[in-house]
Amino acid sequence: MVTARWLVLLALRNAAVLGAAVVLLAGLSTPRVVLAQEVTPVFVVPREPVAAGGSLSVWLAVLNASDRAVSYSFPSTLQGRLSIGGVERQVSLALRTPADGGAALIPPGGYLRREYVLTMPAGIVGKVALDASGVQANPVIVEVVPILAAAQTDAKPEGPTLGGVFSRPDYDPEEFFKAHFFGYEPLYFIVGTEQPNAKFQISFRYQLLNSNGPLVQRHPWLKGFNLAYSQTSLWDWSQPSAPFFDTSYRPEVFYLMQRVDEGRWADWFRLDLQAGAKHESNGKGGLDSRSLNIVYFEPTVRFGQEDGLQLTLAPRVWAYVGSLSDNSDIANYRGYVGLRSVVGWAKGWQLSAIGRLGDDANRGSVQLDLSYPLMKVLFGNSSLYLYLQYFYGYGESLLQYNQRGTSFRVGFALYRW
User: Does 395 lie in the same domain as 318?
Assistant: First the structure.
């Protein structure tokens, strides 16, 4: 009897030990249930505007900051909220690929992301805040522009149409212009003590084809064609009648491919490609005439989060085409390569450097621009940037491309890199 009881107790103890071992092994081999503090959901949206009534891709990236793999369940739909001017609108975001829903394993220190699609309500235009319930992700800002290409309807258009697609009642010239007009190079006005005292620059680009037109809707790559115009003037206040010392006029046409990576590689990396042709002239005649034409290629890479520290590198290579009779040796000073680099915060201090290397190592130039948004210190009332610029090297003006100089100026900017 004692022996039988002892055998039963021994069997129970062994079973308990075996059960504990099985539970322990299962815990080691099975991903842990996700905890809120272990993962960080992040919303990512394109920087390009979206048309009212159009579709918007919203990426939900979930970062795993722990040292263990965790399981995260991506819902098939998200309930979102759009906010603008105190008005809120409830919307739904659906997975673009339904099979991507459900639980997924996120490796330690890694992330997973899924693409959701949102149909923007037709009646919303402007800067819209988007957030979603059910996931503790960051709100994002989306720029919504008016619908410029109307869909075919049974109703007869009130005005003339172009190809049966573009109707006059849906066309607002001012909104159309804003949707296709962009800053290009920095816009600033700065002054210093060296002659010529003042310097200012205007620059913009204009997208040639309508983003919402049938041609671009069918072939989205066509929206990359742009016209641009930049003008840099040196103004000598110290002389009688304050004449303009020299002005550089730079029209160009180029093709811009934005977000070549389409956000697939990493949310902290961006690649743009640009190629074009540019004319530059100072508009003068006789011995003071200066002009050149180039074709160029420029890749731009950006590292860093949208709301964090960013580094941008944009090397450019070019070739001279056409006659250089007004300035036959300008390639000795301008060279064939340049580099633009920008480091800083989108909403804070930013330092940019532009360098050109001439054929001779002693030639070339470097320009440093430091800027800060004044809207952060004047209670949000200013729309300007504080702007400081230092130049050293050859060719600050096209007129004196073969003369070396140094200048430092301070002023304000409306737009920066």
Answer: yes
